[in-house]
Write a structure and sequence with these properties.
Elements lengths: L8 H12 L5 E6 L5 E3 L2 E2 L6 H7 L6 E5 L10 E5 L4 H6 L6 H8 L3 E4 L3 H11 L2 E4 L14 H12 L4 E4 L1 H9 L3 H22 L8 H13 L11 E4 L20 E5 L3 E2 L2 E2 L3 E5 L6 H19 L7 H18 L5 H5 L39 E4 L2 E4 L4 E4 L2 E4 L7 E2 L8 H9 L1
Parallel strand pairs: 1-7, 5-6, 7-8
Antiparallel strand pairs: 1-4, 2-3, 4-5, 9-10, 10-13, 11-12, 14-17, 15-16, 17-18
Length: 430
Amino acid sequence: MKYHSIDRNLFIKNRAKFMAQMKPNSVAVFNSNDIYPVSADSTLPFAQHRDIFYLSGVDQEESILLLFPEAPYETQREILFLKETSEHIAIWEGEKLTKARAFEVSGIKTVYWLTDFHKILNEMMTYSETIYINTNEHYRAAVETETREDRFVKWWKSKYPAHQVAKSNPILQRLRAVKESEEIDLIQQACQITEKGFRRLLSFVNPEVTEYEIEAELIHEFVRNRSKGFAYTPIIASGNNANVLHYIENNQQCHAGDLILLDVAAEYANYSSDLSRTIPVSGTYTARQKAVYNAVLKVKNEATKMLTPGTLWKEYHVEVGKLMTSALLDLGLLDQADVQNENPDWPAYKKYFMHGTSHHMGLDTHDYGLLHEPMKANMVFTVEPGIYIPAEGFGIRLEDNVVVQQSGEPFNLMRNIPIEADEIESLMHR
C-alpha cells in the first residue's frame, strides 16, 4: 500500500462498536471485494470493500472477517481468514499478509488461511442462532454485478436455512457515519493532498490547455503524495461542459475567457476527499462570472453554518433552497413571478441549482449515513452549492468538506485550499 500504516486501535474500536450492537448469540461475516475482470487476463485495480476495511484494516482480496462476541472461546470471537501466501505468490504478485502481519494491521489474534473457512464457520453455526449478512443498502446504490458478498449470502442461505438472519448494514450506516478522530485525520490527509494538486493547477492552467492535461497534473501530484489517485472519476469541465453535472470526458481544450469547473479530489488510505473549485482559464474572472461566483460562495458559507447536531438533512436542503432563491433573484436569473408560481416539488431555483448541497463522506465519497436521522457531531459532510447557466456558457460549483462539531460552526477540512475569487486570481497571475 502507498499509505502509511494505520494504528490498529482504530479497527479494534470499530469492531467493538459493531459487536456491541449485535443480537445475542449471533455471528457476522464480512467479505472482501473481488478483483473484477476486464477481458482476456486483464483486471481492474483492486479496491477493498469498505466494510471489511473499516472493521479490520485488511486491504487485500480473498479475505473474510468473522465476528462472534459470545463464542464459547475467546479465540473464536474475532477471526480473520486470508488467502495463504507463498514464495511463488510473493515473486509474482508481491507481498501478501502473513498471519503475524495481519495481527499487526488489525489487532485480531486468530488468523486462519481461507481453506479453513467452511470448517470453522460450520463450528460457529452450531453455537449460534443468528447470522448477520452484509448487503449494500446505500440510498444511491445501483449494483448490477454479483459481488463476493452476494455469492456468500446465496451459499449461506442454502447451507444454513434454520438460522435467523439479521442485517449488518443498518449498524454500519450509523457507525461509519460518525467518525473517530483517526478517521478525520485520514480524511484531512486526503484533503491536504488535494490541496497540493489544486495549487499545482493554479500555476499551470492557461488558454488552450486541455482538460486531460489538467487531469494529468492532478494524478501526478496525488500519487507522488502517497495517494492511489482520484477518490472518484474526475470532472474537469471547461466552458459549457460545466453544465453537464457529471461530465467526465475531460477531452476538450480550454479557451480564453472561459471558466473550468473542477470536481476533483484525492483519496488516502481508502478515505475520500471531495473538492469543487471553479477557476478562470485566463486567470481573471469577468464581472459577471465573479458576481455568480461570489453568490455561490455566499450560499456555501451560509449553508455550512447549518450543519449542526440535530439538523435533519431534508429540512437543511429546504433552507439552502431559500438561500439559493435569494441569490438567483439578486443575479437576475429569477424574478418574483418565478418564485410565486413555482412548483413546490421542483422550486424555481432548481432551474439553476438542481442537485443536493451536502452528502456524507468518508471511506466512500458518498459515504454511509441514514438521511432521516438527525446529524451528529463528528459526521463529515460536503457543502457544494452551484449555479449552472447554459445560456451564458458557464457553471460554477464550490465545495468543501466539513466536520460537524458538538457546538459552534463545522470545522472545514479544506480551510487552506484557496476559494476566494481574488486569491485565486492572484495565485494564477503570480
